[in-house]
Design a protein that fits this description.
The longest helix is centred in the last third of the chain and has 15 residues. The chain is an alpha+beta fold. The protein is elongated. It has a three-stranded antiparallel beta sheet with strand order 1-3-2. It contains six helices and three strands, in the order ααβααββαα.
């Protein structure tokens, strides 16, 4: 997945709130929807965008779908931002 695709998914505040909810563990789509004042269809779309960006994973159990964070993609983004920021001690040596 491209960084551009991932950052686009992270740009929406509802999607960031969903990721924050999932920090504490996996949740069903219904449980996620209960935390927002938008329609279940809108939450479903947000979940699809997060899944397409590989930021979350889903698992079907019977008639329920559970979502959880995909920490590996978040770690890649964190490493990229850290690298972009650079090492402040490099400036002092020049």
């Amino acid at each position: 997945m491209s960084i551009q695709h991932t950052l686009r998914a992270l740009a929406d505040p509802v999607r960031r709130d969903i990721l924050n909810l999932l920090k504490s563990g996996r949740m069903s789509a219904g449980d996620i929807t209960d935390h927002f004042s938008i329609t279940a269809a809108a939450i479903s779309r947000h979940l699809s965008v997060l899944k397409e960006a590989d930021l979350i994973r889903d698992t079907r159990e019977g008639k329920f779908i559970f979502y959880e964070l995909n920490a590996s993609v978040l770690e890649e983004i964190t490493l990229w931002i850290t690298d972009l920021k650079g090492d402040p001690t490099d400036d002092k040596e020049q």
